[in-house]
Amino acid sequence: MSSLMRYNNYTHDPESRCNCTPPYNPIYSIAARYDLLDSKGSYDLPKMVRRAVGATDMKLTNNAMFKSLEFIAINGPTFHPDGSVLPPFQWSTSGFQDLHDGHPDKWMFGPTYHRWGSCPNL
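Given the sequence above, the corresponding structure tokens read:
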């Protein structure tokens, strides 16, 4: 399920094909990444421009974990571990001028397990 929720293989996924130049779009995937849009590309919607926007995390639980207030999360835009399909997002190489104080430069994190301390309203 984690792989599905972080899926983005836009250059080979038929669901990411579009009437665009280039003929595919990284935001038409489950884990969208606007930063991967070609800055010289022509896209089928007017607001499709390269920017620091997209799927920023994934959270996953199941019935047993939910009852114990547990979940697994992965922080940051999706990437492929070896960078062959999708590189990790990196501020210093992105060309973006957005403020990002307190952010890491490279968003390349694995899954982490979380358990909430207590929730008196459940």
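The mean pLDDT is 92. Try to locate this feature in the token string yourself.
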